[in-house]
Amino acid sequence: MDNDRVEGSMKNIKGSIKEGVGKAVGDSKMQTEGKMDKAEGKIQNTIGGIKDSFRKDRE
What we know:
The protein is mainly alpha-helical. The chain has helices spanning about 5-25, 30-59.
């Protein structure tokens, strides 16, 4: 598994938590940051998936 997939998943989880806390305390800035972290994590996870598929093709 590519390191980007792991890091992307972690950013996605972090973003979900941050977004939830932002909603709970009424902090729109934290909520927005959480959404951005989630989006960044999804992109990084996708890149890692592409790298994994290229590795599988080589084998």
